[in-house]
Design goal:
The complex is a heterodimer of chains A (212) and B (478). Chain A is an alpha/beta fold. Chain A has one domain: von Willebrand factor, type A domain (Rossmann fold). Chain A is 41% helix and 18% strand. Chain A has a six-stranded mixed beta sheet, sandwiched between helices. Chain A starts with a helix and ends in a 10-residue tail after the last strand. Helix content of chain B is 86%, strand content 1%. Chain B has a two-stranded antiparallel ribbon with strand order 1-2. In chain B, strand 1 and strand 2 form a beta hairpin. The two termini of chain B are 71 Å apart. Classes of the chains: A alpha/beta (212), B mainly alpha (478). Chains A and B meet through helix 2 and helix 3 of A and helix 6, strand 1 and helix 9 of B.
Chain lengths: 212, 478
């Protein structure tokens, strides 16, 4: 009898969550707040609300701004790991949405755009959370503009990450020479995929179904 | 060696082909007897093997049928025994109740009859006394009139008239009294009639029940004797029970599914919405476990009440222990039903919370407060409370299902074995005929040598018939 009980416990333990890989999702969203892109932030707010509605208890979500030096926790606007109880998770989502709304209404334009720093911060954050799926959303025109003294020619470890560039608007110069736009996106794709990540571009924000 | 090389054994391929065919036919002809034997042996072996397998399956089918019959008879014996036992208990109860009432009934009947007898005796008409004065009148009439007989007679007449009047009054009074007595007898007659009608009805009821018992006993005897008719009736009854109980169980499963959906969502609040065991959410498993526990408690309750007999241990418990078990299981059920009602309420609250959050995240207005929301909340709570008790009654169809399942599985097994046996018999016959066919197919390219052989044999036979033997010659020679 004792053996049966021990065996049953072992079986349950084997089946239980502790031994299984994590199934939750971690999402880190970077918002470009540079002068050329600031007006797009209303759209970003919609994307954030959409992400909040899709995320479930135990998932992690953080929204951070891209500014002159983005490799910093200070740039995180809101972050949350949703509680396992659905009611608490709902309350967290409402609070999250409120914070983002405040930010969008009072955001100031950044002088420079440090996308790589933001990506590094995102990788660090999501690795720390240890989520099963790791997704980085970049709401930007993907034009990096670094201030003097910032070193960003480094390999970001994207293995296991899905990097999605959202609403990559074309700049005025891209209209003169579309090759610049294409080469910019190609450079980012190469950078992500070289480090083992997965790269996607989604410009139609009405079709976000497959994103999360 | 390739086909082209074979055709090149002579400079002319056609001649090579003819030569090859001739050699092949010759070889086949020479090997014909052995080949036929081989084909016959192989097909015969396969056919016999399949027939043996078919026979053994038939035996297994017969054993299973016998076993099924025994199971069916045993189940029927038990069920019929239970029916007869219950009928006897009912008869016993009726007799006990009526016999307990019998002394009172007897006393009432005796009293009514005594009253009637007494009234009847009192009502008997008493004949009037014979007239004694007649002789006196005769004597007086013989007296001479001069001696004052007329006066005497006149006095007598007066006295007689007076006496007559008094007698008539008394008679009328007595008659009235007797009529009163007779009238008073009517209700007593009615009482007697009523009592006798009641007794008649009870006796009739008892007789009808005894007829039922008699019928059940006849069926029981048929089952005990193992008559084919009884087996057939039991078999069809078992099939009907199986399908009916399966249908009721399906309905119960539907009820359990609704119950599950009522409590699965709020369970996530208690055990977490993301933890999983295997591939299932822990909240779902917890909700399922609660429902299973409710069904188990229902089973135990039904067993304790001796409505079902799935667990002999429970029905064999002492009455005191059984009664305790009834209360314990009922209390647990009540507790679980109350918990479910609470969870159903919580479900509604969570649903509203989720709706308002979703509306907010979609950038819409907050959800409008529904003034009739309490109706759905109350309905959910009511269902959460009632469904556990409704699931208690699953025990009855479950018992029937389990009992009839044995028979149905047996019948299915018999049908499968019968089908297998038939297929094997057909295959056995097919292989036998296939052997014959192969022999004929083998002979097909050998038609020339076979024709020659047959012709040669016929000629040899004819020559034997044409040339007489030495003995025949001797007989002919003188």
């Amino acid at each position: 009898m004792k053996r049966i009980v021990i065996l049953s416990c072992a079986l349950l333990a084997a089946c239980s969550q502790s031994s299984a890989p994590p199934r939750n999702t971690g999402v880190y969203m970077l918002l470009d707040t540079s002068g050329t892109y600031r007006d797009e932030l209303r759209k970003a707010q919609d994307v954030i609300l959409y992400a909040l509605s899709r995320l479930e208890p135990a998932d992690s979500f953080a929204v951070a701004r891209i500014d002159t030096g983005s490799f910093s926790e200070k740039d995180i606007i809101a972050k949350a790991t949703f509680d396992e109880r659905p009611s608490t998770a709902n309350a967290q989502k409402r609070a999250f949405a409120s914070k983002v709304k405040d930010f969008v209404s009072r955001v100031n334009a950044a002088e420079y755009t440090d996308i790589t720093g933001g990506l590094l911060q995102a990788v660090e954050f999501l690795n720390e959370k240890g989520t099963g799926r790791k997704t980085i959303l970049i709401f930007s025109d993907m034009e990096q503009d670094l201030d003097k003294g910032y070193v960003r020619n480094i390999d970001v470890p994207f293995k296991g990450f899905q990097v999605i560039a959202l609403n990559v608007v074309k700049l005025r110069k891209d209209n003169y020479d579309p090759r610049e736009y294409m080469s910019r996106l190609e450079a980012w794709k190469e950078k992500v995929e070289k480090s083992g990540g997965e790269w996607r571009v989604v410009n139609d924000l009405d079709r976000l179904d497959g994103v999360l | 060696m390739s086909f082209d090389a074979l055709l090149a054994i002579t400079p002319w391929p056609a001649i090579s082909a003819i030569l090859l065919i001739a050699v092949l036919v010759a070889v086949l002809y020479l090997a014909r007897h052995t080949a036929h034997q081989a084909i016959r042996t192989a097909s015969g072996a396969l056919s016999r093997g399949l027939r043996v397998a078919s026979h053994s399956i038939q035996q297994a089918q017969a054993r299973l049928a016998e076993r099924n019959r025994e199971v069916l008879l045993a189940a029927g014996r038990e069920a019929k025994g239970r029916v007869v036992e219950r009928e006897f208990m009912r008869v016993g109860e009726t007799v006990r109740k009526d016999l307990a009432n019998y002394p009172h009934l007897h006393r009432a009947l005796s009293e009514a009859i005594s009253h009637i007898e007494r009234d009847h005796q009192n009502a008997v008409e008493v004949p009037p006394d014979p007239p004694g004065w007649v002789k006196a009148v005769e004597t007086v009439s013989k007296i001479d009139a001069k001696n004052g007989a007329n006066e005497v007679l006149s006095d007598i007449h007066k006295s007689v008239v007076k006496a007559h009047k008094e007698a008539m009054d008394a008679y009328r009074e007595a008659s009235t009294e007797r009529h009163e007595l007779l009238r008073a007898m009517m209700p007593r007659w009615r009482d007697v009639q009523e009592i006798l009608t009641t007794v008649d009805q009870k006796v009739e009821g008892l007789l009808a029940r005894l007829l039922g018992i008699d019928r059940h006993m006849q069926e029981y005897e048929a089952i005990v004797k193992g008559e084919d008719k009884a087996v057939s009736v039991l078999s069809s009854s078992s099939l009907v029970n199986f399908f009916v109980s399966a249908m009721v169980l399906l309905v119960a499963i539907g009820g359990a599914a609704i119950n599950f959906s009522l409590i699965a969502r709020p369970m996530a609040e208690m055990v977490g919405g993301t933890s999983v065991i295997g591939v299932f959410k822990t909240a779902d498993i917890a909700a399922l476990v609660i429902i299973m526990v409710e069904i188990s408690m229902g089973l135990f309750l039904m067993e304790s009440l001796r409505i079902t007999r799935l667990f002999p241990v429970i029905s064999a418990l002492p009455d005191k222990m059984r009664r305790r078990m009834i209360w314990v299981t009922f209390s647990i059920l009540l507790l679980l039903a109350s918990i479910e009602a609470g969870l159903a309420y919580m479900r509604e609250v969570l649903l509203q919370d989720e709706l308002s959050t979703t509306a907010l995240l979609r950038g819409g207005e907050a959800v409008v407060e529904n003034e009739f929301l309490w109706i759905t909340t109350a309905a959910q709570m009511g269902m959460g409370f009632i469904l556990p008790f409704a699931l208690v009654f699953v025990a009855i169809p479950l018992e029937t299902f389990v009992h009839s399942l044995r028979t149905v599985l047996g019948l299915i097994g018999i049908a499968l074995l019968r089908a297998c046996s038939l297929i094997l018999r057909v295959l056995s016959s097919g292989f036998r005929h296939l052997g014959t066919l192969l022999e004929r197919v083998y002979d097909l390219p050998l038609f020339v040598p076979l024709w020659l052989e047959a012709r040669w044999q016929r000629m040899a036979q004819e020559s034997r018939v044409a040339q007489p033997t030495g003995e025949d010659l001797r007989e002919v020679t003188p």
